[in-house]
Amino acid sequence: MRRFRICAPLISALLLATVHGPSALAQTDAPAGASESVSVESGAEEMPEGVDALIADLKRERDPEAANRLTEDILASWNASGSPTIDLLMQWAQSAASEKRNAAAFDFLDQAIVLKPDFIGAWNQRATLHYTMGNYKRAVSDINRVLALEPRHFGALASLAAILGERGSEEMALKAWERYLEIYPADRQAQEIITKLSEKLAGSRT
Asked: Which among 178, 192, 187 is positioned nearest to 12, based on CA atoms?
């Protein structure tokens, strides 16, 4: 069965959190058998007014380049920890991950989460690391936490959709992509994925 893989701009949306600063992840010790269920409509923790305005602009924007600039600003806001100590831990985690010292990267991320459990940047970066290592159950556990803190996190939604698609849960993947597109409607590749996946699912029901 053909799978719909996450496309490059959508991977970039997720990995920007790793490349450009702190990202958010879920529980400090996600069990290996963690559930893959997720609610994309859970309540958001209150974010700075600037983020709300940027997301409102992103929902209205139809020009892909302008929308991409908005996503960079939004991710920068989500990745701002407000703590020099946490920022240093996130830098160490990024360096360790780039050098394939994954155990050290996880240790730094866990420390950041202990210091600030509601920091979206650390949860997301840990989810990204699990995702790149193929630890999908742990990645989904952390993505759940990201979306509990910030349901509008388009990078986490894109990652969730990709994982669900890879694991054959295509109807759930479609719902995640649709939620993603509500927030980031200018992403044309996401539009194409939704169209193809909708056609595939419609064909399988006939």
From this structure: 187
Amino acid at position 148, single letter: A
- Output the CA–CA distances (angstroms, integers) from residue 14 to 63, 75, 160, 186, 204, in the order listed: 20, 9, 10, 16, 30
Q: Which two tokens stand for residue 24?
A: 């958010």
Which long-range contacts (C-beta less than 8 Å, at least 24 apart) are formed by 61-70? 61/185, 61/186, 62/185, 62/186, 63/186, 64/186, 64/187, 64/188, 66/186, 67/184, 67/185, 67/186, 67/187, 68/9
One-letter amino acid identity for 108? Answer: F
pLDDT tens for the chain, residues 1 to 206: 334 344 434 443 444 433 333 333 233 333 333 333 443 333 344 444 599 999 999 999 999 999 999 999 999 999 999 999 999 999 999 999 999 999 999 999 999 999 999 999 999 999 999 999 999 999 999 999 999 999 999 999 999 999 999 999 999 999 999 999 999 999 999 999 999 999 999 888 76
DSSP H helices in the chain? 8-19, 49-60, 64-78, 84-98, 102-115, 120-132, 136-149, 154-166, 170-183, 188-205
